[in-house]
Amino acid sequence: MRLPIGNGDYVVRSYDSGDVAALMKYADNAAIARQLLDHFPNPYTEEAAHEWLQSAKKQDPEVSFAIATPDELIGGIGLLLRDDVFRHTAEVGYWLGEPFWGRGIATRALRIFTRWAFREHGFARLEARVFEFNPASRRVLEKAEFTLEGRLRHSVTKNGQLMDMYLYALLADQLEGEEEWNG
Fold first, then answer.
1. Number of domains in the chain
2. 3 Cβ partners below 8 Å, 6+ apart?
3. Maximum C-alpha span of the chain
4. pLDDT digit string, tens, across residues 59-92
5. Cα-Cα-Cα-Cα dihedral sign, residues 116, 121, 122, 127
6. To pair with 38 at 20 to 30 A between CA atoms, which of 132, 134, 150, 161?
7. Hey, is 28 helix, strand or coil?
8. Tens-digit pLDDT profile for residues 84-125
9. What is the CATH number of the domain that holds 42?
10. In angstroms, rounded to a whole number, what is the distance separating the alpha carbons of residues 56 and 53?
């Protein structure tokens, strides 16, 4: 399966130079930045949007993608590749514009994206880490068949606060059948 993947109302696709306005519109949100790593800018400026799109286009292999409607980007999803003894493992991350929260879009995007990632890259395992104060993202992972493997106590500092993080994983041999977007 090649990208874009999905049908109907939502797809996972490559970033496009025309995504600048939508990136600024949806990513410039403190509620989103609060849930992500510190390198996700806040405020999310036009310069940051251009820099992100340029870096995404240079990726080889391409591992960062837009979650989009037919009209615009509404979020992002991607992989952090590992090497050495972890070469068959990648970390997955995602975000979605606040107007789209609570509709099951992130769960569906994650389900189809993880299946694509396993097939395209031959991973044995995908991991995701979630801050302790983000139960919505934990539910997304659980609905997408990820398993909670542990609580990493006092493992991160976000906004000056030392806190726990949850580690989730999905193994390639856990998957059953094809996942359709049905968006």
1. 1
2. 12, 13, 14, 62, 65, 116
3. 43
4. 999 999 999 999 999 999 999 999 999 999 999 9
5. negative
6. 150
7. coil
8. 999 999 999 999 999 999 999 999 999 999 999 999 999 999
9. 3.40.630.30
10. 5
Q: Where are the alpha helices (DSSP H) in 41-157?
A: 46-57, 105-121, 135-143
Domain membership of residue 169 (yes or no) is yes
Distance of alpha carbon 121 from alpha carbon 35, whole angstroms:
27
Residue 176 confidence (pLDDT) above 80: no
Contact in structure between 130 and 137 (CB atoms under 8 Å)? yes
Mean pLDDT of the chain: 93
Of 24, 25, 1, the C-alpha closest to 11 is 1
Amino acid making up residue 95: W
Q: Is 180 helix (H, G, I), strand (E, B) or coil?
A: coil
At 109, which amino acid appears?
A
* Whether 9 contacts 183, CB under 8 Å: yes
As given in the structure block, the two tokens for residue 3 are 């990208």
Domain that holds residue 100: 5-174
